[in-house]
Protein backbone atom coordinates (compact mmCIF):
# COMPACT_ATOMS: atom_id res chain seq x y z
CA UNK A 1 0.00 0.00 0.00
CA UNK A 2 1.45 3.34 -1.00
CA UNK A 3 0.23 6.25 1.05
CA UNK A 4 1.40 9.77 1.69
CA UNK A 5 1.25 11.88 4.84
CA UNK A 6 -1.46 14.01 3.23
CA UNK A 7 -3.65 10.91 2.98
CA UNK A 8 -3.33 10.13 6.69
CA UNK A 9 -6.23 11.89 8.32
CA UNK A 10 -5.76 11.87 12.08
CA UNK A 11 -9.50 11.44 12.54
CA UNK A 12 -9.19 8.03 10.91
CA UNK A 13 -6.16 6.78 12.87
CA UNK A 14 -8.32 4.39 14.82
CA UNK A 15 -9.39 2.79 11.52
CA UNK A 16 -5.85 2.19 10.23
CA UNK A 17 -4.77 -1.37 9.69
CA UNK A 18 -1.27 -2.48 10.67
CA UNK A 19 0.21 -1.79 7.24
CA UNK A 20 -1.17 1.76 7.13
CA UNK A 21 0.14 2.44 10.64
CA UNK A 22 3.62 1.19 9.71
CA UNK A 23 3.62 3.25 6.49
CA UNK A 24 2.71 6.33 8.50
CA UNK A 25 5.41 5.69 11.12
CA UNK A 26 8.04 5.20 8.41
CA UNK A 27 7.06 8.58 6.93
CA UNK A 28 7.72 10.21 10.32
CA UNK A 29 11.44 9.46 9.94
CA UNK A 30 11.76 8.08 13.47
CA UNK A 31 14.93 6.25 12.41
CA UNK A 32 13.67 2.94 13.77
CA UNK A 33 15.26 -0.31 12.71
CA UNK A 34 13.16 -2.55 10.47
CA UNK A 35 12.92 -5.13 13.29
CA UNK A 36 10.65 -2.75 15.24
CA UNK A 37 8.23 -2.40 12.34
CA UNK A 38 8.27 -6.19 12.09
CA UNK A 39 7.31 -6.42 15.76
CA UNK A 40 4.35 -4.08 15.14
CA UNK A 41 3.35 -6.30 12.23
CA UNK A 42 3.77 -9.56 14.17
CA UNK A 43 1.79 -8.18 17.13
CA UNK A 44 -0.91 -6.95 14.69
CA UNK A 45 -0.85 -3.43 16.13
CA UNK A 46 -3.50 -1.31 14.39
CA UNK A 47 -4.17 2.41 14.65
CA UNK A 48 -6.71 1.91 17.41
CA UNK A 49 -4.38 -0.19 19.57
CA UNK A 50 -1.42 2.10 18.80
CA UNK A 51 -3.26 5.09 20.30
CA UNK A 52 -3.21 3.34 23.69
CA UNK A 53 0.39 2.13 23.47
CA UNK A 54 2.63 2.59 26.50
CA UNK A 55 6.38 2.21 26.89
CA UNK A 56 5.75 -0.78 29.16
CA UNK A 57 3.58 -2.51 26.58
CA UNK A 58 6.10 -1.87 23.80
CA UNK A 59 8.90 -3.15 26.03
CA UNK A 60 6.94 -6.35 26.60
CA UNK A 61 6.92 -6.81 22.81
CA UNK A 62 10.71 -6.49 22.68
CA UNK A 63 11.24 -2.77 22.06
CA UNK A 64 14.28 -1.16 23.64
CA UNK A 65 13.85 2.04 25.67
CA UNK A 66 14.62 4.57 22.92
CA UNK A 67 12.27 3.19 20.27
CA UNK A 68 9.56 2.59 22.88
CA UNK A 69 9.79 6.22 23.98
CA UNK A 70 9.65 7.50 20.38
CA UNK A 71 6.60 5.42 19.53
CA UNK A 72 4.83 6.35 22.75
CA UNK A 73 5.37 10.04 21.96
CA UNK A 74 4.08 9.49 18.43
CA UNK A 75 0.96 7.76 19.79
CA UNK A 76 0.36 10.67 22.17
CA UNK A 77 0.76 13.18 19.31
CA UNK A 78 -1.75 11.29 17.17
CA UNK A 79 -4.19 11.09 20.06
CA UNK A 80 -3.93 14.87 20.60
CA UNK A 81 -4.48 15.53 16.88
CA UNK A 82 -7.56 13.34 17.06
CA UNK A 83 -8.96 15.37 19.97
CA UNK A 84 -8.19 18.70 18.31
CA UNK A 85 -9.71 17.61 15.02
CA UNK A 86 -13.17 17.56 16.56
CA UNK A 87 -12.82 20.18 19.27
CA UNK A 88 -11.97 22.84 16.65
CA UNK A 89 -15.43 22.63 15.08
CA UNK A 90 -18.22 24.88 16.26
CA UNK A 91 -21.02 22.79 14.85
CA UNK A 92 -21.98 19.42 13.48
CA UNK A 93 -22.58 21.09 10.13
CA UNK A 94 -18.87 22.05 9.91
CA UNK A 95 -17.85 18.43 10.49
CA UNK A 96 -20.25 17.20 7.82
CA UNK A 97 -19.01 19.78 5.32
CA UNK A 98 -15.36 18.90 5.99
CA UNK A 99 -15.98 15.23 5.24
CA UNK A 100 -18.26 15.89 2.27
CA UNK A 101 -21.38 14.51 3.90
CA UNK A 102 -24.67 15.90 2.65
CA UNK A 103 -26.45 17.47 5.61
CA UNK A 104 -29.90 17.21 4.02
CA UNK A 105 -32.09 15.35 6.44
CA UNK A 106 -29.92 16.15 9.45
CA UNK A 107 -32.85 18.14 10.81
CA UNK A 108 -34.91 14.96 10.77
CA UNK A 109 -32.36 13.26 12.98
CA UNK A 110 -32.16 16.23 15.30
CA UNK A 111 -35.89 16.32 15.92
CA UNK A 112 -35.49 13.02 17.77
CA UNK A 113 -32.59 14.33 19.83
CA UNK A 114 -33.72 17.74 21.11
CA UNK A 115 -31.69 17.42 24.30
CA UNK A 116 -28.50 16.90 22.32
CA UNK A 117 -28.85 19.26 19.37
CA UNK A 118 -29.93 22.86 19.30
CA UNK A 119 -31.08 24.18 15.95
CA UNK A 120 -30.53 27.87 15.32
CA UNK A 121 -30.55 29.60 11.94
CA UNK A 122 -29.87 26.42 9.97
CA UNK A 123 -26.88 25.63 12.22
CA UNK A 124 -26.76 22.41 14.28
CA UNK A 125 -24.71 22.87 17.45
CA UNK A 126 -24.06 20.59 20.35
CA UNK A 127 -25.73 21.88 23.49
TrEMBL record:
Which superkingdom does the taxonomy of this entry point to?
Eukaryota
Check the record and name the Pfam families matching this protein: SAM_2 (PF07647)
Occurrences of domain SAM (ranges): 13-81
Q: Which InterPro entries match?
A: SAM, SAM/pointed_sf
This protein is called SAM domain-containing protein
Amino acid sequence: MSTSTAEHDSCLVENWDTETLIDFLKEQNLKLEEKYYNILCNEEITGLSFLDMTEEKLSSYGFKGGPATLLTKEAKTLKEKLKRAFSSYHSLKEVLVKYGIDSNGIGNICQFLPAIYKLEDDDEELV
